[in-house]
Specification:
Blueprint (H helix, E strand, L loop, with lengths): L1 H24 L2 H28 L5 H28 L1
Helix pairs in contact: 1-2, 1-3, 2-3
Length: 89
């Protein structure tokens, strides 16, 4: 359940990045840039989530690594799809 909530939070954060990209970039090009910038920010958040799992929850790095990959990959793939779609218009 925690993984689903983390990924949902990532998708919501993607929406914030796209919105601010629209506001600061004055259009769809800015939104696409915001979606691309989200990927780097989301990688940092996913690594912090892994660090908390290792240091606070008592999991090993090898146990947390697949969770890191899934937590990062799903929202990042959605972000790249959004950036690609926005760049096409």
């Amino acid at each position: 359940m925690h993984m689903v909530l983390v990924m949902l939070g990532g998708v919501l954060l993607l929406g914030v990045f796209v919105l601010f990209g629209w506001l600061w970039g004055h259009g769809l090009g800015g939104s696409a840039t915001g979606a691309r910038a989200f990927v780097a920010a989301w990688l940092i958040v996913a690594i912090i989530n892994m660090w908390v799992g290792v240091t606070r929850a008592g999991y090993t790095v090898m146990q947390e690594l697949p969770i890191l990959l899934v937590n990062f990959a799903v929202p990042a793939a959605i972000a790249m799809l959004v950036a690609w779609q926005l760049s096409r218009t």
